[in-house]
Amino acid sequence: MPEKLPTIIYQQDGRIARITLNRPDKLNAINEEMPRELRAAVTQANEDDSVHVIVLAGAGRAFCSGYDLELYAESPRPCRGSQEMPWDPMIDFRFMHENTNCFMSLWRSAKPVICKVHGYAVAGGSDIALCSDLIIMAEEAKIGYPPARVWGCPTTAMWIYRLGAERTKRLLLTGDLIDGKEAARIGLVSEAV
Asked: How far is Cα 64 from Cα 126, in angstroms, rounded to an integer?
């Protein structure tokens, strides 16, 4: 059996802790390990006095394409994140709450977090990116929360924190993706490059 690769790569470059989402073959889709490995990497950076800033990025062609739907939506039941009927909302809540707490470790970090978005930051991937202090996004990159059309609102609530109610409702009720230029223009991200 091949050795399982970490979903997060942590590297220190002088005073910079570089945290990289590392599932490039899946566009860095979120699996069961990624949220906890992300929180561990943020904790490591915060406990290291020589680290002054965290830079968060994604390996390969995208920042993060959200939850791994092949794993969570297409795998035979039962699987982690699924349940038998009748549906129990508390099972979903516990699963998502744990992951959201892991993503929010970026927001609670004592060290500033700069996120670099390229390719896509959609669904749960946008949750991760928006928990950062500053977001630099490629002009042609796309960000959005399409699952709002089916499954409801983002778990971190960072969309409303960054945009206010009206703009957030417009983007989440439609599930539209916007590019880096538009995201910077409306104040969702710090800058588009």
From this structure: 8
Q: Take residue 10 and report the two structure tokens written for it.
A: 């942590």
Max Cα distance, the chain (Å): 52
User: How many Cα atoms within 13 Å fall on the side-chain side of residue 53?
Assistant: 10
Instruction: Say what the pTM is.
Output: 0.89
**All residues at 6 or more sequence positions from 33 whose CB lies less than 8 Å from its CB, including other chains:** 6, 7
In tens, the pLDDT along 117-160 reads: 999 999 999 999 999 999 999 999 999 998 877 766 777 789 99
CATH number for the region 8-192 comes to 3.90.226.10
**Tokens 């549906």 map to which residue?**
87
* Domain layout of the chain by residue ranges: 8-192
